[in-house]
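Limitations

Structures in this collection are predictions, not experimental determinations, and the ligand pose is part of the prediction. Treat each record accordingly. The example that follows, with zinc ion as the small molecule, is included so readers can see exactly what is and is not provided: the inputs are given verbatim, and the output is the predicted complex.
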Amino acid sequence: MATTLITGGTVVSATGRAAADVLVDGEQIVAVLAPGSQLLGTDLRQGVDTVVDAAGKYVIPGGIDAHTHFELPFGGTEASDTFESGTRAAAWGGTTTVIDFAVQTTGTRIEDGLATWHAKAAGNCAIDYGFHQIMGGVDEFSLQAMDHFEAEGITSFKMFMAYPGVFYSDDGQILKAMQKAAELGLLTMMHAENGPAIDVLAAQLVEQGKTDPYYHGIARAWQMEEEATHRAIMLANLTGAPLYVVHVSAKQAVEQLAWARDKGQNVFGETCPQYLYLSLEDQLGASSEEWGAFEGAKWVCSTPLRSREEGHQDHMWQALRTNDLQMVSTDHCPFCMKGQKELGRGDFRKIPNGIGSLEHRLDLMYQGVVTGELTLERWVELTSTTPARMFGMYGKKGVIQPGADADVVIYDPNGHTTISAATHHMNMDHSAWEGYEIDGHVDTVISRGKVIVDGNRYLGSKGDGRYVKRALSQYLT
Ligand code: URP
Ligand code: ZN
Ligand code: ZN
Ligand code: ZN
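Predicted complex:
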């Protein structure tokens, strides 16, 4: 087996940092050593096949993006990144594992959705991948299917309090699924927005001629998120099911999570880079020659961007520091403006919902380190270690230690990146982050021992990535 020594860098984990060399044998990390260590009297460098110089750089566990939607049929079209293009873009950005959502839409069977997702992904991924299950309608068949989730390596599933007619579950359905989840030790993920009320608000706005993308965020008011988050918490409380609320954007929803956690309830929250950086005001002000006010469609996602004046973004950063929120995923759900987002010209309800940013998650979160919002350790924890623990992969993923998969990123704090659709690798004709200046740069990406990104060279190939059968969440056992 080929051996690699990553030398001279600062190894950063969720709990500390130290100058150390990392020895990789084949696909695994076999040792983390003090710099210049000798093994049986021999300088380590002499025996290894490849030496990777990480001097002046951070050596971190590969990023884990636990929320992506490749090839998702949604809003009358399909998310524009395939498993091939999406995992390649992830690799460029220092993410070495993704968890995508296998989809059951209302009225279809879970088993069929899962088989379809395996077929989409198998042989096409540059990095390792796992699945959550989207449950698009709780009926006796889907409840039975839950019995097989753990054996399939799918230990978490998502339900929707939003999107009536597509994915929506009512409170009774949610209650039944949570009862079963509590029994089986599965983690319930929730899209917490009051869909039926939002649909009424949205229809009223359109009737008033308020059809621009900005009104998407007005219809999906923070009250709709706070209320649904509270309802999800109470249903989870009643059933004893642990709860993970996805894509949290309203400060009031964070307050609900903090309240439940303070009482000892097993609830967790994830936010996304868009809710830390972008705002409803940005969306209102957006206009271009090509698209006019429809430019704002680039930032249509659910939950929506929130008002900066109301302080939601600052509150998200604070919650990441205080652990009221535990994770940052992207909810990568890319759609092009041309042919996709433009389906909603004249009616914001028809704009496919989603922002694509999985390539930039590590970079965007590293800016929190640069500004002092986060420590280096917290950066690693939010983007790799907690996702691994939350979703049953820790030990193999999320950590640099002997026995772990050699998923390693060498991050250059003195590097620089300018985000642009002209240079990104995601299959999107625009970037939600166009022109953003990033301090820091993903220099080298190693996936199970193979260097797949080396500076500006891409060395990965589709099929390198394997399906990860996940164990039960380590926060629950
Ligand atoms: O706008 C979003 N978030 N699109 C993806 C689907 C979802 O709700 O996660
Ligand atoms: Zn969602
Ligand atoms: Zn999503
Ligand atoms: Zn570089």
